[in-house]
Amino acid sequence: MAVAIDACILSQFLFENCGELIDFSTGKAIRSARERIDGLIQKVERDKDYVVVPTPALSEALVVVAPSVQKYLDILHSQACFKIVGFGERAAVEVALRAKTGLSTHDKKEAVKSAWNKVKYDRQIVAIAKCENVTAIYSADKDIHSHARLWGMAVFNVCDLQVPPQQQKLFTSSQSEAQPSQPQTSSTQDDSKAKSA
To answer: Which of 3, 36, 89, 135 is least buried, going by the fewest C-beta atoms within 10 A?
Structure first.
């Protein structure tokens, strides 16, 4: 089952001391979020499938450690289950079609409440996932959930994942040297995620 993940989930994997993930539907911290994410990645590895990391999500996650990013890229490149995918021609067409649909109804954001800059950014993430034919997107961002549903894609929150009964840690002590804070949530990141057109 190829899946795609967003920046918050990627940060939980990369950064040992990442902050708590908040369930946008309840406003409460997701219990054992890190263990749930570890379990998802281990399942993908066992199934010999892959986790799509859209480059817009990757850039968002790496902001907190920039410019010291190579260590974390090496972690992703060292594990065969991760597939970093850029915003290419097919994804660009998908975004264009999505934007045209919104414009045809005189609502270019299609009822998503965030700023236009964030809408454009999030659409890129979902378009990449769609072009990779993933079975689902895992995201802690309510806007990603909205966009995925508009595209007819399955999307799940971290709280939808089970906590593995016996979780084997995927992290070594060398991965925990940096202690970045959690990336900004969707509610605080409207204008900082992408440049305006």
So the answer is: 89
CATH number assigned to the domain comprising residue 43: 3.40.50.1010
Is 169 contained in some domain? Answer: no
Q: Within a domain: residue 116? A: yes
Rg of the chain over Cα atoms, rounded to whole angstroms, equals 16
Structure tokens at 82: 């991760």
Instruction: Please return the burial class of 130, using the count of CB atoms within 10 Å of its CB with bins 0-12, 13-18 and 19+.
Output: buried
User: CA–CA separation, 60 vs 151, rounded Å?
Assistant: 22
What 8-state DSSP symbol labels residue 3? E
> The domain containing residue 10 runs over which residues?
3-160
Q: What pLDDT shows up at residue 182?
A: 52
Q: Cα–Cα–Cα angle for 182, 46, 62, nearest 5°?
A: 20
Stretches where the chain sits below pLDDT 70 are 166-197
